[in-house]
């Protein structure tokens, strides 16, 4: 999934709460408008098993927005106790004001904004949208608590869902459990991992800036962000050799995360580096030796992995090694005990390349991987 940041007007955070015009820089020469080009991109991406959607903001309002006068006149901006409009930040040299969720909803403007987008772009085909920096704040000038604003925030979220669009958020929003399924930054304590199953609320990465326990990402799974792969944030330039870094982060993070999210989290045992997460169906994750096992069969050891490719219809495994290895014997996981032969494919950004067929003896497969190599293992039953 790719969420486009800065797709509207002149780019990131520009002219909210309006979002009625596509950034002209997205226009292709062969299209009449940038809007037409964005619709093309969203539909073309599906050919490559990719969903393109939007990065939005439903909180901020700027004075240069086409909707500014309307939002002030209709009392759709939250207020301080003295009646002044609530400023919540300053971005790109402009003050950002808090949209009042209650008034915006009750007067129909929130619904109108969403309906405009649904008509402009195939968001219902994408099935998802990202609402960034989505915070509920008390509006003392309206004598409204944060709880009241949060209740209207839920109504807005339900409205998106009723139209076939799931919402992702920047951070975990506790009271949105069961509504928002995914947070881009997933900082939380270990007990919350045990209390809230992944099928209800899961997330991307643990934000190191928030001083979170990074080890929880290994114990309970963590996905990845693509923006730091395609762009080098040290130089703010595009990486031409992004494939290797993408593979490393995907196969060492997202693939174990997909696997672990299938199971019920049972317990977290031990302390510090000696912690172990125990799951249903015999799955254990050990921090001390960086292993993942199911019924004692090894699926991961450090930066070497052999996990089920659960997103594929075929019975398949993916093998990856950050540093490579020679003639390593893997015991194939549960459900592979009757597999006698497999096909091996080299995975690359240009597609899968058949390598060879190989026999499986006593549920054991011997592999040799080069540094950073990805191998797809398909069962031939």
Automatic annotation (TrEMBL):
<feature type="domain" description="Endo-alpha-N-acetylgalactosaminidase">
    <location>
        <begin position="4"/>
        <end position="171"/>
    </location>
</feature>
<protein>
    <submittedName>
        <fullName>Endo-alpha-N-acetylgalactosaminidase family protein</fullName>
    </submittedName>
</protein>
<dbReference type="InterPro" id="IPR025706">
    <property type="entry name" value="Endoa_GalNAc"/>
</dbReference>
<dbReference type="InterPro" id="IPR013780">
    <property type="entry name" value="Glyco_hydro_b"/>
</dbReference>
<dbReference type="GO" id="GO:0033926">
    <property type="term" value="F:endo-alpha-N-acetylgalactosaminidase activity"/>
</dbReference>
<dbReference type="Pfam" id="PF12905">
    <property type="entry name" value="Glyco_hydro_101"/>
</dbReference>
């Amino acid at each position: 999934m790719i969420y486009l940041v800065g797709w509207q007007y002149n780019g990131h955070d520009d002219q909210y709460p309006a979002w009625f015009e596509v950034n002209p820089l997205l226009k292709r020469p062969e299209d009449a408008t940038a809007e037409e080009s964005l619709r093309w991109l969203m539909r073309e991406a599906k050919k490559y098993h990719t969903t393109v959607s939007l990065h939005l903001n439903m909180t901020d309002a700027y004075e240069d927005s086409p909707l500014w006068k309307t939002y002030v006149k209709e009392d759709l901006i939250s207020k301080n106790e003295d009646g002044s409009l609530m400023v919540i930040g300053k971005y790109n040299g402009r003050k950002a004001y808090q949209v009042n969720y209650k008034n915006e909803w009750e007067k129909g403007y929130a619904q109108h904004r969403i309906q405009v987008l649904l008509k402009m772009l195939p968001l219902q085909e994408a099935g998802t949208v990202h609402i960034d920096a989505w915070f509920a704040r008390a509006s003392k000038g309206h004598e409204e608590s944060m709880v009241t604003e949060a209740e209207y925030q839920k109504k807005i979220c339900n409205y998106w869902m009723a139209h076939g669009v799931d919402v992702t958020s920047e951070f975990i929003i506790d009271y949105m459990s069961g509504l928002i399924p995914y947070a881009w930054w997933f900082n939380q304590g270990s007990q919350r991992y045990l209390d809230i199953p992944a099928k209800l609320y899961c997330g991307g990465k643990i934000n190191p800036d928030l001083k979170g326990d990074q080890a929880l990402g290994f114990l309970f799974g963590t996905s990845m962000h693509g923006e730091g792969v395609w762009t080098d944030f040290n130089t703010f330039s595009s990486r031409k050799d992004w494939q290797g870094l993408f593979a490393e982060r995907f196969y060492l993070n997202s693939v174990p995360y997909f696997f672990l999210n299938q199971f019920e989290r049972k317990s977290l045992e031990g302390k510090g580096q000696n912690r172990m997460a125990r799951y249903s169906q015999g799955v254990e994750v050990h921090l001390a030796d960086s292993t993942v096992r199911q019924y004692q069969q090894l699926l991961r050891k450090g930066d070497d992995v052999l996990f089920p490719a659960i997103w594929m219809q075929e019975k398949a495994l993916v093998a990856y090694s950050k540093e490579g290895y020679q003639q390593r014997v893997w015991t194939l996981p549960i459900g592979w005990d009757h597999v006698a032969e497999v096909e091996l494919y080299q995975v690359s950004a240009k597609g899968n390349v058949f390598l060879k067929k190989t026999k499986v003896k006593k549920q054991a497969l011997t592999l040799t991987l080069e540094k950073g190599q990805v191998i797809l293992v398909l069962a031939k039953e």
